[in-house]
Amino acid sequence: MSKIQAIRGMNDILPVETPVWQYLEQVITDVVQSYGYREIRFPILEQTQLFKRSIGEVTDIVEKEMYSFTDRNGDDLSLRPEGTACCVRAADQHGLLYNQQQRLWYRGPMFRHERPQKGRYRQFHQVGVESFGMAGPDIDAEIILVSVALWKALGLTEHVRLEINNIGTAADRRAYGAALTAYLQQHEQALDEDSRRRLGSNPLRVLDSKVPETQALLVNAPRLSDFVSAETVTHYQRLKELLIANGVSFTENERLVRGLDYYNNLVFEWITSALGSQGTVCAGGRYDALVEQLGGRGTPAVGLAFGMERLVLLMQEAGLVPGHIHRTVDVYVLYSDDAVQAAALLVAERLRSDICGLRVLSHCGGGKFANQLKKAFASGAALAVIVDPAAQTPAGLDGVDVSLRLRALVDDATAESINYSALIERLQAGV
Ligand code: ATP
Ligand code: MG
What we know:
Elements lengths: L17 H17 L3 E2 L5 E3 H7 L5 H6 L2 E3 L5 E4 L4 H10 L8 E10 L11 E10 L4 H18 L6 E6 L3 H16 L7 H9 L10 H7 L11 H16 L5 E2 L11 E8 L8 E7 L3 H4 L7 E7 H10 L13 E5 L5 H14 L5 E3 L6 H10 L4 E7 L12 E7 L7 E3 L1 H9 L3
Parallel strand pairs: 1-5, 7-8, 12-13, 12-14
Antiparallel strand pairs: 2-4, 3-4, 5-6, 6-11, 7-9, 9-10, 10-11, 14-15, 15-16
Helix pairs in contact: 1-5, 5-9
């Protein structure tokens, strides 16, 4: 029978890779919690309407990337393509937003039917950081500082750069969109096909085009910065001052507009040159109208999301994955005689309960001593504890008649007799 394969663009994360993920998840958790953000968890499936109303009907995500279906009750549902809309839905539904300040974060899989390639998958993972109820540029700066802190904690500071832009209010963008459309219509023949299609529905997305002819046309196009209203400029100016005061370098990119409709004022991206065209590792911005758009009361908000797969790739590419994380076992317990098989399991159990966090692998499956030792070496453990038959109980190990030997798992090491108390002391001092 033919074997069933995973769905294209949906990756298995194998045990050799999970330590990298766990490491990143731990560092991210520590960083976001150090800023007082609290985790929120929400379902993977939501009403399709949630994404249509937030991300926007004429965005790539909603038009062609969502996994949507009708369930057995006839409800239109979608696998979440991103987390912000879900976070707003959940927080508002449970009364966390009105008249309050909230700092929330989430993580988990997202789904988009895109063309799979390096750094772009159909199931991918994001960590999102969102704040609600604060309208000033200080919280924008804080959100960006969370990402700065993460780069620092991971050693990535030199590998990423920050681009920011002020995209004004929705009304500013409508006025600009009309001016841009009028200009581009005069040059319609020179536009690539995608851009021509966007011209009718979402003209600002033309700014994102990677086609050189289109980029050339844009040089003389109207500029968004001439259309953004005065309050957004003041807000943006102050944000830039706060970033500078905190030593955060950035460049301003007038063409940065983002592919989701809900942003206003600030948008930003962290970009690396190490991952080709999938170079955006983190993106975010302010979205003051979204809560109201989804039926809640007007609540200012700003947030960001990291792409986990791209972070993993970047850490690997930059050679920044710490070697020690691949070690998943500290001690391997084996035995020289089948008569002490049960005692060996007991010794391993005792070690686990006596030393919190110690990772102990019990030899299972029997076999000759030499083969057990081979497995001990292959496990990556630093030390082997060898259990031998004996007529008395070693000090510290009540009621188990064995003797113990300790062996470093390096070539040419010898096994030395050790009593249980001394073994514990030795392991507590560091493997
Ligand atoms: P891109 O321009 O690369 O398509 P995006 O603007 O669609 O990204 P967002 O929706 O803002 O991305 O998501 C935030 C982050 O999630 C991105 O910066 C990226 O790191 C990651 N991401 C988005 N889509 C994918 C995907 N299909 N596969 C892997 N990571 C992704
Ligand atoms: Mg995209």
